Each structure stands twice: as C-alpha cells, then as structure tokens.
Amino acid sequence: MVPHARVRYYFRHERRGWEATAIYVTDYSLVDYELQERDGRLYMPAPTAAGTFGDATAMTYVMESEVHGGMGPELHPFSAAEDARAFVEEHGGRTVPFDDVTPQLIAAYTAR
To answer: Residues of the chain with pLDDT > 70: what percent?
Structure first.
C-alpha cells in the first residue's frame, strides 16, 4: 500500500530537486494477502518481506476503494493491471498509473 505520507514525502523531495533512483512499494500482485475487518471496515495488510516490493513506477494503483490501509484511504499497488482491475471489481474504486499520481490527485483524495 502507499500511505499518503510516503507519497507526500516523495513529492516534497522532488520539488526540492531531488531525484529518486528507485521507489519501492508493496506489490499486491506478489502477495497472497487476506483483508482484515476492523470496526466495520476492510483493511489491507502491510507485508514487509523483501520479496513483496516492486518498482513503484511500474504499478497500477487502486484508489477510492472500500479497502483502507493502516492510515485510512490508500493507494493499493499492483504490478499486474488485471489484478488491479479485479480488485476494483470486488472492492470498488478506480485504477491509476504511477504517472497520474500527482500532488493534486493526492490532495483531492485526502480532502474527501
């Protein structure tokens, strides 16, 4: 998952002229995950094993789904676009490629 704080950290440093050599996120296409229910909401787990990460720029992200992350609404990354589409079919939301994840998109998403 991609917590908004991490995305904001990336954008903040990008504005300062820093260039990331690599950005890694949890790749839910690689993870055999099980959603957890707490307080009437579904939550995505946050695996941290080395084999669960992938190149953030190559992911298709699901946003606006019914599934939250540890910090609330999240972007859920999938390396296989068909996995992202299947997740949307089951849990709602929409897919966006990495290039569409902008500071403006995140600001609008977190303001809702």
So the answer is: 88
